[in-house]
Amino acid sequence: MDTAGQAARKSALYLLDKVLGESRLMSELLAAGALDRLTPPDRARAQRLALSVLRNLDRADRLISRHVQKAPPLPVRNILRLGTLELAEGAAAHGVVNDLVAIASKSRRHGRLKGLVNAVLRKLATDAPRDWSGLATPRLPGWLRGPLTEAWGKHAIARMEQAHASGAPLDITAASDPERVAQELGGDLLPTGSIRLQQASQVTALPGYDAGGWWVQDAAAALPAKLIQGQRVIDLCAAPGGKTLQLSAMGADVTAVDVSEARLDRVKANLDRTGLRAQILVADARAVTGTWDAVLLDAPCSATGTIRRHPDLPHAKDGADIGSLITLQAELIDHAVTLLGPGGQLVFCTCSLLPDEGEVQVEEALARHPNLVIDRDALAHGWIESAWRSSEGGLRVRPDFWSDWGGMDGFYIAALRKT
Fold first, then answer.
1. Upper half-sphere CA count for residue 86 (Cβ side, 13 Å)
2. What is the C-alpha separation between 19 and 313, in angstroms, rounded?
3. The pairing of beta strand 214-216 with beta strand 195-197
4. What are all long-range contacts of 111-114, with beta carbons under 8 Å and residues at least 24 apart?
5. What percent of the chain shows pLDDT beyond 70?
6. Are 214 and 249 in contact (CB under 8 A)?
7. Does 301 participate in catalysis according to the annotation?
8. What's the pTM value of the predicted model, to 2 decimals?
9. Distances (CA, A) of 123 to 22, 52, 117, 386, 415
10. Residue 272 in 3-state DSSP?
11. Where are the alpha helices (DSSP H) in 66-141?
12. pLDDT digits (tens, 9 = 90+) for 409-418
């Protein structure tokens, strides 16, 4: 029979094996039900353990390499990585070692290596707590670090890597009265109106979740909808729906469009929970027709701005799809312009740190569309910091910003107006 923590550890190892062995994204695995059989506390623990290992993979491997002559097979390496992380965090060595040796012994292919797992983890029970904090901050992989260093400089990248390694607090958007919701949740009210909880929590157990007065949304992801001006709004590429909820809560008549019916089911579930309303349309955004006051386009992108929350991304991806994403973003912008009447507004955003998916896209869109201009009135908000403003007229936020509060996702946002 599994011990109290063994189910969560087994599931964390399953996630690690899929991400590092098959280049699967955690979001895909979770959507496919990878943790559904666990209790909510075990589900939260399994996910936290897997994310923490991915966030600190370099550190764990450096400690493990002291005690092995050659790297063991990936599933065994992941067992050692998980053990190293837990020991470094101060977990009881007896429970960690016994559980992980038991898990290793049940492996048909690698059970013979349980002795190695036992020996290495017992040595790491001393090394990990003592040496962990002195290890260098894990670096981004070369395919991403190179272009980001070229864009932002080596010192900024070092600060971003530190933000990635630190992880992310839980951010929440309130449908109304954020001050009251912040007090009820014991969170900090950020300058932009988002609520931040510094301590990890099981979301569904937080006060007010069932009542639907708030939803989880990174503070940076909540910025684009705040720039929207217009009553009839179409939210293109809307899933998972945080911006749709924001727009509805602002009183807009919202149409949420996404190509994925399964992802829109999540939007519907959140609309039901919060009591908000929106029209739902399953479609390729490039096939939508009609006219709206405003278009919010959160375009598919490399998601490189979300690594502090999704440390699996640099391990599951290699950047090979970025070129096709840039092409798709341009196509979506061009089509979005056709959905606007004269004077209509387009808010374009991506959760990317790459200028080619942000600043460059807008510069090229302005060159392609003489009837588009930067909507500077939309940026007349007191919460917008001067450091966020980019030269072409958009907003650029990065993981190393707001370091005193725990950072924010990397995002690019531009508000455009059709003349």
1. 29
2. 9
3. unpaired
4. 113/72, 113/73, 113/76
5. 99
6. no
7. no
8. 0.93
9. 30, 21, 10, 50, 56
10. helix
11. 74-88, 93-105, 114-131
12. 999 999 999 9
